[in-house]
Description:
The protein has 121 residues and is an all-alpha fold. The protein has one domain (10-44, 51-117). It is 70% helix and 0% strand. It has helices at residues 4-7, 11-24, 31-44, 51-60, 66-80, 83-97, 105-117. α2 packs antiparallel against α5 (66-80) and α2 runs parallel beside α6 (83-97). The two termini are 23 Å apart.
Amino acid sequence: MPTQFIQKMNKTESGFHLLMTLSIADGNLHAEESSVIFNFIENNYNEEIDIIKEQAFLRALPQEELHNHFLETAAQFYKISTYEERNKLIEFAMKVVMADDEMQSTENVFINELFDAWDLA
């Protein structure tokens, strides 16, 4: 069940969390991935977001809680987005995980779960 924090996320915040979680799923934060995420968020969402606060939250999130946070955030994004918005985000998510030219097994698991959670398979 999503926490109250996650239930209050708007599309910009939840999209940012999903993409950044995918970016750090392999245990590393790559500058290439962060750069493309920032550009996507800036170009596709206009809701309020405090990037510094959101990044600090994600950095402080214990690695063992990353997966659950991802699933809860995916459920929130699903509730507040359209089918087209979900397709656009997942298409871009594939670019995020491939920004370093390889998909790690953990990134693959997260992407597959996103497809399943949003019934996009």
